[in-house]
C-alpha cells in the first residue's frame, strides 16, 4: 500500500475478520464504512469468493486479503497449527496500514467462530474424527483472545448460535466475554433474531460487543456502576422492516429441480428424486410433513417417521420435505439449505417443485445478488459457505452502532 496519496478516503475503522469464511462479516464491515485489511480462515476454498466480492471503498480501494491460516498453535500433537505465522502476518499488515492512518482510526476485530461445535447434532451421528474436530474447534474463541490481548483492538464484534451461552457448552461464551474484559474492554451481550434487522430469515444468534474501557460512550451503557459496566446491545434495528420470504425472492425467475439459470449467478437448484418430487408436488406452503401420510400417491412418509408415530403417537422432524411460508421470513438457513430432506427448504411457490436455489439461500442471508459464490465449486461446498455465513445486514447494523453510538474517539 502506498502512503503517499493524500486524496485517499479514510475509513471509519480498520478491521480484521477472524473465521471469515466466504465473507458475510467482511461484506457487512465494508458496507458500514470500514476498511477490511484481511479475512482469516483455514478453508482455502473460500478464497476466490471472499476476495472477488469484498473490494474496499476507502484508502487504496483494494480487495480484502484472504489469509489461509490455521489459528491454533503448532505443537507435537497438532503440527498443522500456524498461530505463530499468523501473528507475524497480522503485525506486518497493521504496521503497513498504520503508517498511513496513524492511531486515530479505530481497529476492529470481528470474531465470529464456526458455530458447529455449539449446534444440536447428536454425537451418535458423528464419526470419531468429527467428534475430535468439534471438540478442538470449541476452543477457537479462546485462541482468538490471544490476538485480542496482543494487538489490543479498540472494538470487538462477535456472533454465534443462540445456545452458545448455555451451561451444556461449558460456559465458553461467558469465558470469552471474561477474556475480553480482562483485556481492558467493556462488553455487552444479547440473543437476537436476524429478522429484526431486515434479514428475511428467522435466525437466533448470540452477540457480544466490546469496546476499550476508555473509549466507551457512557450513554451506551446499561448502568453507571464502574464495577459492572455493560454495553447495551439492541435486540433489533429500530428502522428495520420485517421482510418475508416472498418479498425477498419474488424477483428471481422460476427454476426446475436440477436446473441452473443461464444468466443469474448461483441460481442453481439441487436435483430431487422421483419420490421427493411426489412429496413436494402435494406439499402446501407452511404445513408440516404430516401431509405425507395421506396423498394421492399413498403414504409417502418416511419409515422412521411412521415408526415414531406408532411409538409416540406423534410425528418427528416435522419440517423436512416441506415448503417455506411465503408470508414470513424463512427458517434458519443452514449448510444443507438446498436439500428438502434437511429442513423446511422447499420453495414456497407450489408451481416450483424443488428446494431453494443457492442464490435464493444467499438472498435470505441478506447477500446482494451481485455477491457471486465461486461457481467452480460444488453445490454442497457453496451451500456450506452460505449457511456458515454471518448475514451482512446484521454485521452492518452492529458495526455502525458501535462506531456511532458506543465508541468515543480520543480526539472527540
Describe the structure.
By secondary structure, this protein is of the alpha/beta class. The chain has two domains: 14-241 and 390-406, Rossmann fold (3-Layer(aba) Sandwich), CATH 3.40.50; 253-356, no CATH class. The protein is built from twelve helices and seven strands. It has helices at residues 24-31, 47-53, 83-101, 128-137, 140-151, 172-182, 245-249, 274-281, 303-312, 358-364, 379-388, 392-406, and strands at residues 14-18, 35-40, 65-67, 107-111, 155-161, 185-193, 204-212. Strands 3-2-1-4-5-7-6 form a seven-stranded mixed beta sheet, sandwiched between helices. The relative contact order is 0.14. The model has no long low-confidence stretch (mean pLDDT 92).
Sheet with the most strands: spatial strand order: 3-2-1-4-5-7-6
Individual helix count = 12
H/E series, N to C?
Answer: EHEHEHEHHEHEEHHHHHH
Q: From the 3D coordinates, which CATH architecture of the largest domain would you assign?
A: 3-Layer(aba) Sandwich
- Which sheet architecture does the biggest sheet show? 7 strands, mixed
Please report the total strand number as a whole number. 7
Mean of residue pLDDT? 92
Amino acid at each position: 500500500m502506498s502512503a503517499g496519496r493524500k486524496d485517499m478516503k479514510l475509513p471509519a475503522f480498520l478491521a480484521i475478520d477472524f473465521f471469515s469464511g466466504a465473507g458475510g462479516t467482511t461484506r457487512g464491515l465494508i458496507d458500514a464504512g470500514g476498511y477490511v485489511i484481511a479475512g482469516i480462515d483455514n478453508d482455502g476454498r473460500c478464497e476466490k469468493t471472499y476476495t472477488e466480492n469484498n473490494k474496499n471503498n476507502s484508502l487504496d480501494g483494494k480487495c480484502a486479503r484472504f489469509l489461509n491460516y490455521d489459528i491454533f498453535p503448532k505443537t507435537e500433537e497438532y503440527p498443522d497449527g500456524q498461530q505463530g505465522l499468523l501473528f507475524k502476518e497480522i503485525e506486518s499488515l497493521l504496521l503497513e496500514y498504520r503508517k498511513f492512518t496513524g492511531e486515530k482510526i479505530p481497529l476492529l476485530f470481528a470474531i465470529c467462530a464456526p458455530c458447529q461445535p455449539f449446534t444440536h447434532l447428536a454425537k451418535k451421528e458423528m464419526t470419531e474424527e468429527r467428534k475430535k474436530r468439534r471438540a478442538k474447534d470449541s476452543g477457537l474463541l479462546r485462541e482468538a483472545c490471544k490476538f485480542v490481548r496482543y494487538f489490543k483492538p479498540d472494538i470487538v464484534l462477535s456472533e454465534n448460535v443462540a445456545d452458545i451461552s448455555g451451561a451444556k457448552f461449558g460456559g465458553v461464551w461467558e469465558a470469552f466475554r471474561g477474556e475480553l474484559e480482562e483485556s481492558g474492554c467493556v462488553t455487552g451481550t444479547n440473543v437476537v433474531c436476524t429478522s429484526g434487522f431486515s434479514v428475511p430469515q428467522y435466525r437466533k444468534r448470540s452477540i457480544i460487543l466490546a469496546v476499550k474501557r476508555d473509549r466507551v460512550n457512557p450513554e451506551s451503557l446499561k448502568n453507571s456502576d464502574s464495577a459492572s459496566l455493560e454495553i447495551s446491545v439492541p435486540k433489533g434495528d429500530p428502522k428495520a422492516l420485517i421482510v418475508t420470504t416472498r418479498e425477498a425472492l419474488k424477483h428471481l425467475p422460476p427454476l426446475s429441480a436440477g436446473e441452473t439459470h443461464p444468466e443469474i449467478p448461483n441460481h442453481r437448484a439441487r436435483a430431487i428424486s422421483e419420490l421427493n418430487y411426489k412429496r413436494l408436488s402435494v406439499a402446501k406452503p407452511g404445513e408440516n410433513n404430516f401431509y405425507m401420510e395421506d396423498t394421492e400417491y399413498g403414504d409417502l412418509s418416511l419409515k422412521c417417521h411412521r415408526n415414531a408415530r406408532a411409538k409416540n403417537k406423534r410425528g418427528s422432524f416435522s419440517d423436512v420435505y416441506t415448503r417455506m411460508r411465503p408470508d414470513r421470513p424463512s427458517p434458519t438457513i443452514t449448510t444443507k439449505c438446498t436439500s428438502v430432506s434437511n429442513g423446511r427448504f422447499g420453495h414456497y411457490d407450489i408451481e416450483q417443485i424443488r428446494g431453494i436455489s443457492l442464490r435464493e439461500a444467499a438472498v435470505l442471508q441478506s447477500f446482494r445478488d451481485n455477491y457471486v459464490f465461486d461457481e467452480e465449486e460444488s453445490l454442497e461446498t457453496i451451500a456450506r459457505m452460505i449457511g456458515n455465513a454471518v448475514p451482512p445486514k446484521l454485521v452492518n447494523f452492529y458495526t455502525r452502532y458501535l462506531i456511532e453510538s458506543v465508541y468515543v474517539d480520543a480526539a472527540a
